[in-house]
Description:
By secondary structure, this protein is of the alpha+beta class. It is built from five helices and twelve strands.
Amino acid sequence: MGYFTVRNQASSRFEEKKSIFVGNVKRVYTESDAKKFINTVREQNPKAAHNVYAYVAGEKMNIQRCSDDREPQGTAGIPVLEVIKKKKLTDIVVVVTRYFGGVLLGKSGLIKAYSKSVALSIDKAKVVERVKGSPIDISVAYENLGKLQYFLEQKSIPIENIKYADKVQLSINCVLEDVDPLINEIIDATNGKCELIVGDEEFYFKIDNALVKE
Length: 214
C-alpha cells in the first residue's frame, strides 16, 4: 500500500481584509528538509508579519509539527496542520506567509484564512499517491507480442519502452504487491513463451493505473 502526498512544489496567494496570505507547499521526506524549506520561505519574506507552518512526514504520518508564529494560539498552525491531516497527506510542508493589512480578522477569521491558504496551495501542488513498485523487463517472441499487448491493454498497464530485435523487449512498471501475480498472468497470456526480469524496488507516483517515476 502507498500513501498520499503532493507531486509538485506550488504556491497560492489571496487577500482577506487587506491582509495578503501566501501559501507555499513542498514535498519533503525528512524533518530536516521541512525545516530548511521553512527557513527559506522566511528568508524570502523578511517583511512579513507571520510565517505560519505545519509539516507531516513519514509513511505513517508519525512526525507532525506546527507553529502559529506569533498569531493567537490555535488560530494558525493547528488549522494548517488539520487541513493536511484531513486530506491524509504526509511528506509535506506548508508555510503560510501573512502580510498584515491593518485589519484584525478575529479568531474565526484567522482560522478560515489560514485553512483556505493551505487548501489552495495543496490543490495547485496536486495530490498524488506514492507507492513502491518494480520495473519488469519482458522478452517475448514476435508471434506472442499481440497476445501480450492485448493483455496489458486489458489490465490498463502502459508499456514504458519497447525495442524490436531478435525478440521484442518491453518494459512496464508494477506495484510491488502485484508483481508476483502479474508475472504469472503474463506467463499464462504468452503460453510461457517469454522471459521476465524484475528490477529493484523504488518509489513511483501512481497516476490512474500508470506508475510514473518521480
